[in-house]
Amino acid sequence: MHTNLKKPKMRHLFAIAILMIAVSCSNSNSPDAKKTATSEVNTAAIKTIRLHVTGMTCEGCENTVKDAVTAVEGVTGAETSYVKELAVITYDSTLTTESDLSKVIDELGYKVEGPAPDNNESSQ
Ligand SMILES: [Cu+2]
Prior knowledge:
By secondary structure, the protein is of the alpha+beta class. The protein has helices at 8-25, 59-70, 98-107, and strands spanning 46-54, 75-81, 86-92, 111-115.
């Protein structure tokens, strides 16, 4: 096994790959990770919806859902909670719709059960 040491570059690349996987999995909630909103966003059409989402089991799931909906054109903000089975999404209703956003989440393998009741918030 001594011959393995002859390829430090390969080992280095491998280490980077492992690191990237680790980082993408443990990417904890960073509230500052907001994307700059496009200038086309029409503030008068901004809506906030609360969706009941099942299937999320950890912070990784939360981030997967959050990142996916944030990437949708017109979405200006998203918060997700696997504990509350909740996704709160703020978006420009002239650019996307609740059903579009639900579809994005469904396609990730999670399930949008419908609108989340407001009283979910008190059951912390
Ligand atoms: Cu998860």
